[in-house]
UniProtKB/TrEMBL annotation:
Pfam family, one: Tsr1_G-like
PANTHER family, per the entry: RIBOSOME BIOGENESIS PROTEIN, RIBOSOME BIOGENESIS PROTEIN BMS1 HOMOLOG
Source superkingdom: Eukaryota
Domain Bms1-type G: residue ranges: 103-267
Protein name: Bms1-type G domain-containing protein
Extent of Basic residues compositional bias: 10-20
Region (Disordered): 1-25, 42-61
UniProt organism field: Molorchus minor
Amino acid sequence: MEENEDLANKKKHRERHSARWKGTLAVDRTLPTTLAVEKLKRRKAKKDSLNAESDGISAKQKNPKAFAFNSAIRAERRFRRKQDIETKKQHIPLVDRTPIEPPPVLVAVVGPPKVGKTTLIQNLIRLFTKTPLANIKGPVTIVMGKKRRVTFIECNNDINSMIDLAKVADLVLLLCDASFGFEMEIFEFLNICQVHGMPRIMGVLTHLDMIKNSKTLKTTKKTLKHRFWTEIYPGAKLFYLSGILHGEYLRNEIKNLGRFISVMKFRPLQWRSTHSYLLGDRLEDLTNQELIRRDPKCDRNVSLYGYVREYP
Ligand SMILES: Nc1nc2c(ncn2[C@@H]2O[C@H](COP(=O)(O)OP(=O)(O)OP(=O)(O)O)[C@@H](O)[C@H]2O)c(=O)[nH]1
């Protein structure tokens, strides 16, 4: 009887109603989730930094082993790089002495005969001025941007012109007939450039449409590119003008080349800073015509227009 009374007094077992326990949303609370781990890590890092700050020592000082380098080679490289940067800072920086209103950038178009120099200059002039220029006599200066004027000069195929232009050109467009390959003139010009401070040089491959086989075209482009890189420097810019249509190069390719020239930055050259020069791009004879008529060999008064590029 007593036993029965005890059982009646005891609470009855009740089923759990929570969904977690019914199995549908059961989550093992003992396993930490990635979020929880992240949170813990962050809390620990904060605590560590606070501790370090309070002690007045950094985490690196506190636990140097954790910050020791893993690879001796990598550490050596890092050290060498740091030293290089420090030594570089010790050099006297190159002073850019270009005036506020700089003279036009001089672009020399160099290459063997019949390679397409005149056509290229004409196309570039047409692109920026929207006016075709049929006859090109001497240097042509055009405006390429808000702050950039460019003078194009075609280089004659003689050594004197090459030497003169190598001394004054800011940028050289080195044209090469891809169906023929690099010619002697190109190597000659590069040698001349080398002793005159080496201006910026960009290669332009023309007559690519003469190579009909696509496989040959691909290999030619590749070989010429690598040959060009060995002569200038690996990675030197080389443009491809893949064909001519109605006497003009493809508009897109010319646009690309023009854009490249218009935004190009020029480093001041050491050689130029010690060799001032005057570039006359226009010449006018002011002598009295009557005097010339009387004596064709009389002394002449000549007026030269151009820019003095003087570096004090
Ligand atoms: N098929 C083809 N013909 C071209 C290409 N580039 C130029 N030409 C032609 O080659 C000929 C010579 O071009 P020019 O621009 O006069 O060459 P140049 O280098 O100024 O010649 P010189 O002033 O005599 O040294 C022209 O008839 C052009 O149409 C090209 O990529 N493909």
